[in-house]
Amino acid sequence: MTETSTPNSGATPAISSPPVPLGIPGLLATLSALLLSVVSFSATGIAVPDIGASLHASAAEQSLVVSAYSLGFAVPLVLAGRLGDLYGRRRLFLLGMAGFTLFSLAATFSPNITVLITARALTGISAAAMVPQVLATITASTQGRERARAVGLFGATAGGATAIGQVLGGVLLSVPLFGAGWRTVFAVSVVMGALSFLAALRWVPATNSPGHRSLDLVGTLLLGAALISLLVPVSQGAALGWPIWCWVLLVAAPFLFALFWVRQLQLHRADTAPLVPPPLLRLASYRLGLVMALMLQSAFGAFTFVYALTTQTGLGWTPLHAALVLLPFALSFFAVSVWSGKLTPRFGFRRLLVIGGIIQAVMLFATAVSVLLQGTGMNSWTLAGLLIGVGVGQAFMFGPLVGAMVADVPPSYAGAASGVLQTTQQAAMGLGVAIAGGFLITVTNGPAETVTSAYTTALAVSMIVQAAFATAFTLAALALPKR
């Protein structure tokens, strides 16, 4: 059974048939795409130094291994969400998972850095095809309490997978099955991708919301150009020394976004199908939720980046040591995210978001103070224990935020809503990493004997900034409708 829509559904949401039952196996198979996409990104970040040594790659080339995936992932997300609405979310999911698996195989056996960068870019594009279908399928296939629980698991997967990927990457780097640890990292993605494809083939239901069979190609080009103009300078500017063309692209980005939005409004008024339906952003909970997601993801991206460099470069920890300290954070995040899905029907999204924001702001500030006091003698156990509280707060922020955003979204807009949200998250992570990278370059550009303390100071500052964002997040949550 699939969603249906009237021929002229550009202005109003389609009238949908009852949701297709998703079931626990279908939910887990669907979430596997999100898990794989995030784990692949974070595990690759841990593996970059090993890749550089093995393939004799420059610093800029090592940076491209990560950013090529991010760009390939972020740029087509909204289009992929729309394609899922039109031609079937299960179909796009399976195509994306197949591509993800095959290109991960190509990355595993890359003979040089150029082939690896190309394979990672194509892996990112494949991830973009499958990931928007995750939240769209949940939205189209669940209601009420079942949707709240599913969204809780979505949040747990999205947030916890970052730390899980770092832990997994640290472990796999010590297992050079194919001559180098980084090849093992990509080989695991091949195995997991193949298993996820088979599971999706068996359990993921087919849903769509066809409406108009046309695609907004002009809008797609404008949005792609705007995202590239933003994300390329953000991801590569620091590594390249901020050449003039990076600044030109950054200046062009807001104008391209404005042109894209004018195009969407014109199509909507003409009763045709825009890439991003304007009524979607007229939903107060969705619109405010995008701002909150921007704050949450940019701060988290900056923290994970500064944490990795502080612990490994500044303190000299091994990748596995640094990753294991994050493990309690990941476990608490996952456990509380699942629990928050059960609490949502009783307490509502708004209350859980406020609680989460307060907990995270307090725990981040306490952790920052501890880092400043300990300095270069930072104790792993103390940091790991404090990060448990940070994980609890973030769990009450992430899952309920997604739930609050999709609560009023009609199933006919599910793909577009998922694509816009995840594009915002990807862009926010990139912005957070770029700003943190520039800050680190500034504070660590001093005498060698002060570099280690500069790294720990930078980590504490990033946590204080993240605590400030958590406070702003809490205030924004108070403006959401009560449910």
Features:
483 residues; disordered N terminus; single chain; Growth Hormone, Chain: A; 2 domains
Write the layout of secondary structure elements.
Layout: H1 23-55, H2 59-74, H3 77-87, H4 89-108, H5 113-130, H6 132-141, H7 144-172, H8 181-203, H9 217-240, H10 244-269, H11 278-281, H12 284-314, H13 319-347, H14 349-374, H15 380-406, H16 414-443, H17 448-477
Shape: globular
**Through-space gap between termini:** 30 Å
Oligomeric state of the chains present here: single chain
As for the number of domains, it is 2
- CA-atom Rg in angstroms: 21 Å
Query: Can you tell me the CATH architecture of the largest domain?
Result: Up-down Bundle
In total, how many beta strands? 0
Low-confidence stretches at least 5 residues in length (pLDDT < 50)? 1-18
Would you kindly provide a written description of the structure presented here, covering whatever features stand out?
This protein has helices spanning 23-55, 59-74, 77-87, 89-108, 113-130, 132-141, 144-172, 181-203, 217-240, 244-269, 278-281, 284-314, 319-347, 349-374, 380-406, 414-443, 448-477. With 483 residues, the protein is an all-alpha fold. The chain has 2 domains: 23-215 and 275-477, Growth Hormone, Chain: A (Up-down Bundle); 216-274. It is globular. Residues 1-18 have low confidence and may be disordered.
Summed up, what is this model?
This protein is mainly α and 483 residues long. Helix content is 80%, strand content 0%. The protein is built from 17 helices and no strands.
